[in-house]
Amino acid sequence: MLKKHPFYIKATVILFGLVLFVYSLSVLKAFLVPLCFGLMLAVLLNPLVGRLQKRKLPKTLAISIVLLLAIVVLVALGYFLSAQVASFSDQWPVLKKKFLELVLKLQHEISHLFNINTRKQDEWINEAEAGMKPGLGQALVTVAGSVETILLIPLYSFLFLFYKTLILNFLYEIFAEENSKDVGAILTQTKHAIQRYMFGLLLEALIVATLNSVALMILGVEYAILLGVLGAILNVLPFIGGIIAVLLPLTIATITKDGFGTQLGIIICYLVIQFIDNHFLVPYIVSSKVKINALISLIIVLLGGAVWGIPGMFLSIPFIGVLKIIFDRIPELKPWGKLLGDEVPTRHKGQIWGLRRKVLR
């Protein structure tokens, strides 16, 4: 009989394994990020490729057509956003001047209320700017590296779609034949979860972008469409994205408009949009596909950001959704699947076992 190891040894081994795993993810970021995005895009486009193949198109031609359509859509979206950013940058000197005036006015208010002179405040601002420079430099490196990532994603997607059968056969063959049903179920559920999640996410983003843009245009906020689209993109990130999404139009409104009526209108509109998103769009479009509770969503998004930056934040939810599907299919890992899910029990096991003991007595 094999000797069971004490809990502290098991915990140490598991913790060491997790640290090594996270470290490996961080080191291999440049390789894994485009690979993961390429895999997700391949899974998303796979149904369209299958339909074209049913129309007797060769596999290579079907994959090429679908990828070309996807690239055209993404380029059109990128061109639209770049045009909006260019319009914003043309007005940047004026906005910067107004922003500096607003900061100066705020400094005088702080000096009056808290008896902190403007020189001391300037020192704090300079220290904050000095602290932000390394982060800005890292951001520029990330943007430069994203060009390579963007070029690799369609290549990976093409190869994943082309070698799909080979990869599936490998996954079936590495497991015992008696587990083939479970393997097939996991692969099918994973594929459907990613496809439905991505489609749901795109549909939700389109609706939220439209609502944001219309609300901001009605309120007369400049660059309404740009801010609305950025808000919808940021909305993908739980909690953090929503806060940043509302801060952007609030900042622009504060710089470009007098008074606080517009800012109040923005807050009210975004609260209404968030209510619609959280109670109607997310439950029926997104969360119904990948059921992850809010606590795990926040933790995994922050971890993804810490390991892979912004790409990691966007990849974290589909990744944890796939893990939940796998955990739910393996008996030993089912408790972990329940921990990730959004079903909250009314009683914990201790209460249930306590009731059972009372009944037995």
Secondary structure: helix percent: over 70%
Relative strand content: under 5%
Q: Give the averaged pLDDT, no decimals.
A: 77
- Radius of gyration from CA coordinates: 25 Å
* Structural class by sheet pairing and helices: mainly alpha
- Helix segment tally: 13
Number of strands: 0
List low-confidence stretches.
none
Description:
The protein has 361 residues and is mostly helical. It has a domain at 30-137 and 146-174. It has 13 helices and no strands. It is globular, with a radius of gyration of 25 Å.
Identify the notable features of this structure and list them briefly.
85% helix, mainly alpha, 361 residues
Lay out the secondary structure.
Blueprint: H1 7-27, H2 29-54, H3 59-90, H4 92-114, H5 118-162, H6 164-173, H7 180-219, H8 224-234, H9 240-256, H10 261-286, H11 294-329, H12 334-340, H13 349-360
Brief overview:
This protein has helices spanning 7-27, 29-54, 59-90, 92-114, 118-162, 164-173, 180-219, 224-234, 240-256, 261-286, 294-329, 334-340, 349-360.
